[in-house]
Structure formats: structure tokens, C-alpha cells
Amino acid sequence: MNDAADAGRATGGRDGDASVRRFTVAALSRVEGEGALRVRVRGDAIEIAEFNIYEPPRFFERFLRGREVREVPDLVARICGICPVAYQMSACHALEKALGITTTPEIESLRRLLYCGEWIQSHALHVHLLHAPDFLGFESGITMAAEHRALVEGGLRLKAVGNRIMEVVGGRAVHPVNVAVGGFHKAPALAAVAGLLPDLEWGLGRALDLVQEVSRFDFPADVRPAETVCLRHATDYPMNDGRIVSSGGLDIAAEDFLSHVRERQVPWSTALHAGLMPDERPYLTGPTARIHLCRDRLPPRARAAADACGLELQPRNSFRSIVARCVEIAAACEEAVAIVRRCHAAVDPCRIEWTPRDGVGCHATEAPRGLLWHRYVIGGDGLVQEATIIPPTSQNQAEIERDLRLLLPEVLALDDAAATRRCEHLIRNYDPCISCATHFLRLEIDRPSMG
Amino acid sequence: MSNAMSADDAGPGPGAPPASVAATNTPPHVSRRKPRIAVFKFASCDGCQLQLLDAANRFLELAEHVEIDHFLEARSRSVPGPYDLGLVEGSITTPQDVERIHEVRAQCRVLVTLGACATAGGIQALRNWGRIDDFLSAVYASPQFIDTLATSTPIADHVHVDFELRGCPVDTTQLVELVTAVLVGRRPRVPQHAVCVECKARGTVCVAVARGIPCLGPVTQAGCGAICPAHDRECFGCYGPAEAANLVSLTGWYERRGTPRAELARLVRSFNAWAPAFREEGDRLSAGPAGTDVESSP
Lengths: 451, 298
Prior knowledge:
- The complex is a heterodimer of chains A (about 450) and B (about 300).
- The two termini of chain A are about 25 Å apart.
- Chain A folds into 2 domains: about 5-55 and about 405-450, no CATH class; about 60-395, Cytochrome-c3 Hydrogenase, chain B, CATH 1.10.645.10.
- Chain A has about 450 residues and is an alpha+beta fold.
- In chain A, strand 11 (about 260-265) and strand 12 form a beta hairpin.
- In chain A, about 40% of the residues lie in helices and about 20% in strands.
- In chain A, the strands form 6 sheets. In chain A, strands 1-2-17-4-5 form a 5-stranded mixed β-sheet, covered by helices on one side.
- Chain B is an alpha/beta fold and about 300 residues long.
- Chain B has 2 domains: about 5-185, Rossmann fold; about 195-285, no CATH class.
- Helices cover about 35% and strands about 10% of the residues of chain B.
- In chain B, strands 2-1-3-4-5 form a 5-stranded parallel β-sheet.
- In chain B, helix 5 links the parallel strand 3 (about 85-90) and strand 4.
- The radius of gyration of chain B is 21 Å and the shape is globular.
- Chain B starts with 6 loop residues before the first helix and ends in a 13-residue tail after the last helix.
- Residues about 1-30 and about 290-298 of chain B have low confidence and may be disordered.
- The chains are: A alpha+beta (about 450), B alpha/beta (about 300).
- Chains A and B meet through strand 3, helix 2, helix 5, helix 6 and helix 7 of A and helix 3, helix 4, helix 7 and helix 11 of B.
């Protein structure tokens, strides 16, 4: 880590009152999007610990009104360039419920393959280029590549494996064009699907090794556990379907989500905060939560890798999320291999026909970053009347702030530069997808001088 | 929207050494300075920046030939400008960003916009046809905390832009071509023809002619490889209007064959809705220009 080169973003100093020390990070790097962090400590008391998202709102929920049902997958993809398939999958399933149609197992299998591609590329990007540099002491994957070339090149190749699935099944790696309400516009050619196999088998082997490599990173001491929330499916590792469950005993259908989770606007963020009712308590969603609650649904080799590295069953330590993410890269490769091997004929029909009708549909899927919930009200004219979207990062926002408060006592013993890096590292543990954000992540800590 | 950048505008490539260094008797210890690149983000989905990273091993190769001095999504190190090349993703939607884009422009010798948001205002420009209060209250309980403009506008509405790379998202190959071209001081080789040409090149049967699907391929700039018609569906205009696109003729033809006007208005009002040719046609097909048809689509 080159502190001097980093000085443009992080500054320290005394502000008026000589007993109060302040430092600022002008911009959080290596996250998808930009936000701010504000901390104030007086003595031992943490007065403020806010994770700000200055995402300029783009009003998707508003402009979806009046658009055609069939346009929705293409429109909601643009919420996030990193995880467009997640938005397409939650939207399609919710709209299919509203339309009263169900697709075929073959279509769902192809959807799962596409989603595996997104998990692989999104996780590989985060693990190698955004998160690992924190553990290995580099400011980026670019500088890290000088000393860890094989690690970075392996990561980029894993990402390319995920991208390739999205191209073959979705037509394009960023903002796939082949996803439709009811299935796919066109079934991918059988030969192209089969052609994925060698890369996927390499990816599985690489990911299994990667689990062991990252599990040897240096992790800080555990803190108290988070309450976890994710989908749970009868047989499969959660992705496109399942009931919404929590470590606190929640077990509900997607339709009941808003009775148990409240979204609240806070002045310091353009993302809405979600909390579990009745007390609006923070909860964790994403890879750590999924492995916590659905470890028994992992495919065998990924599960064995998770067991072998001693991955904590309890989500007590957000820094270990990088291990969970690598287990899921392996799981997604393993699932994709199985799907491709089962694929003996082009999917036909690739799309279930539907006719417009009045309806309401809710559905949640598991985006790489966690639970993504959609609800649509549609009309017999084929137009969307209402849309509600609750993304994973707004669900994790309160948990990130809680975790930050737990980290602060340790951080305040460090010098300014190290404390700043630690707080940024903690935020990256959650792979926040604040991709529409524009402004700065500022870390301001007001605290008595350490003398 | 224009792709107007001549080789002359680009000037000598930043990779070219200053005249004093370029003299024949260059001492061996004077090396060519690596060109400095910065990537900036405004309102967007990050997808175009991701295309930079998706150049995979080309990304590491690129990093060896240039200094990536500001790219927040990829690295913590940030070196102050001026930069030889600035790549801008996203549209202008807040008062702060109106200020910031001027600061960015002042720091960049060549400024290139990446994608539909930066080039045409993006999907979020659909707000330009509504009342912003209505949009705010639809999403937020306390709109007074939200600082946003009533419009989403392209970068070129605010500062001079040297080149605009189209797409939602931009194409990785075009992106690598653009960076290479700017750095060596030539005009990027980016096709200006319509998506139709790409369909013919790859042998895709025309979805509009053969299947009666209203398709924007004839009026949309190429670059994607005509992937949508290849997937048995319409082009929906990710790359924005092609040069001299005749929208009225095309939509008139679709309308005569039975596609409702409202549907055609929605078709031209997506990721490049605010690009002049699409904007005018969207307005003509629906109730009227921006701000007058609050209750209709988008």
C-alpha cells in the first residue's frame, strides 16, 4: 500500500478544537459505485457511524410504470452492470406469477446456468480485483499482479468463464439480451452450451484451490454474530427459488416479505434502509448468509472445500466473506458443469407464451450480493402499474453500520491511514453494489487526539 | 450526439514524447512518458466501466502501457490530473455533478464519453418527460433529503466532448480500439453504419421483414454485432441513432402494418431516449415534447 499515492483520497488533521481529530477519505475505491462513511467518537462513545450512499436516484420504480411487461427484463438489467441477471431473474419470476404462468424445468435449468455465470464473474471480480488487495496489502489488483500474477490472472480467467456463460446463454455478458418473461427469446445452440464444459471444469478446479488459498489470509478476531437472511430451497443451493428464511426462525413466502421487513428512508442515504420487524433490526444477506443457512444444499465438492477450510458456520466475522464468496464460485462452477452435462437437447420450447391480464406478483432471487426482492402490479393492457424493488445492498446497509460500530474500538487504536484502510476494508467485506452512486465516500472521524 | 473527432483534433498522441525528447539525439536515460488515463463515473450502472475490466488479460496488458491514474472502481491509488485521456461513464443528474464535470473536463486533454448514459442521458433520462416531484415521491417518503435535478443530461450538454463511444453497454473491442487510437493520435475506427449491416454480415434473417417484429436495426448505430435479431428479437437501440437515421419513415411503416403508436413511442424511448433523433420521434409519436405529457408513458 502506497500511502503517499493514496494521500489524494485520505487526509488527516486537526479541525479548530485541538482535542478533536478528524480524517477524511474523499472516495471509497474498489466498490461498485460510490458512497460515504461518517464516524464521530467522543471519548469512548460512538456518536455517529453512518454508511452514506449518495447514489443519485435513477427512479426505476417510477419509470417502469406504463412500460410493457415484456420490456421489464431489459429495463431492470440497467439497474446494475455487475449483476443484471439478478434483476432480470427476480423480475421475470415475479411477472410470471402475476401473469399466472409457470415455465418448464428445462427453462429453469437454463436460467440457473445463466445465473451461475453471473455469480462466477461477479464473485471473481470482487475477490481478485476489489477485495484480495486489502488482505495482501496492495492498493489494487493491478499492483497486486506484480507480486501475485498467477492469482490475478486466475481471477481474470475465472471472470471470463462466467462471462462466457452469460454470452452463450444470455447473448451478452453485460446486460444480456436473451432473457424474456416466460423464458428465453432463443434457445442457445447445444454445441455452444457443450463447449462451455472445458472452461467450467478448469474453473471448478481453480475455485476449489482458491477456497484454500483465501482461507489462509489473515483474519481479525470474530465479533458477535449477525442475523442472516436468504432463500432456502427444498433441494438446491438457493438461487432462483425458495422460501425466505432467517437464522432467527423466519420462514416465509416472498409474498409476505413486506410484512416482515420494513424499508425506511434515512436522511444520509439515497438507498432505503431495510430492517427485520418488529424492531427493524439489522440483518445480513449474501454469500455468508447463504452458506450459514444452506450449507447442506451446497454441491458436494464445494461443500467439501468449505468443510476442509474450516469456514465458520456462524457469521461472526464479515472479513471471512471472501472465503464464502470463493466457495460460491466453486459451487456455481460445479452446478454449471452438472447442468451442461445434463443438456442433451436444445431447450424447446424456450419460452412459455402468455397473454396480458390483471395481476400482482412478488418474487425474490439470490443476487451475488444477496436477496433481491421484486413486486409488480400489472394490467390487462400489458402495462406495469406499480413496481417495487428491494436490492441486497439496502438490506445490508444497517448491518454494515452495526459491524462498523463493532470495529471502531479496534480501529481507533490505529493511526489515521491504517484506520481509514480498515474501515474501507470492512465495507468491501459486504461487496456493496451502490453502482448508481456518484459522490464520495467520506470517512470523517471526530475523536479526541491520541496525543 | 456526434462522433466528430478528426485525427487533427486528437493531436499528437500523449504517448508521443515532447519535442525536446523526440529530437534525434535522445539520451538513453530519457524514457517515453506513459500516457495517463482517468476513469470517472456519474449516474450509471457501472456496466461500461466493467467492460474495461472485462478486457480481461488485455486489461493487465493495458495497465502496463498506460498509467491508470484514477479509476475508483479498480484501484485505491488516485493521482491528481492533468490526464491525457479521461473516460466518462454516466449522465448528469445532480447540481454537484454539473460542477464536477467541468472540473473533470479541465483535467483531461482528451475527453471521451462511454455509453448511452454519458452520451445520451441514459435510461434515467425518462424522467425528462415527467415531473421530478412525482418521480421523487414515487420512490422516497421524504423527498426533501434527495438532491437531484429534474433532468438527466448527456456530458456534451455541459462540456466539450472529443469522442462519444456508443452502447448500453459499450463494446469491449471498441473500447480497446478507442483507447489505442486516442493514445497513438489517430481517429478511432468505429463503424457509423446501422445495425442492419451487421445482420446482413452475419446472415441473420431480417426479423422486421420476415416476422413482422418492429425493429430499430435500420436506424441504430452498429457496434453490438446485431445480437438481438440473432436472438430472434427486435433491436431496441442500445447504440443510439445511426447517422442520418430516418425514424419517421421506419415507424410509419411499422404503424401501417399495425403496431400501435404508443408501442413505437416506447420502443424509441429507452436507453437512448434523449438522443435527438430518438427524442424527436418519441415526442412526435406520443403526446408531445418533454414536460407536456406527464401522465403518459414513459
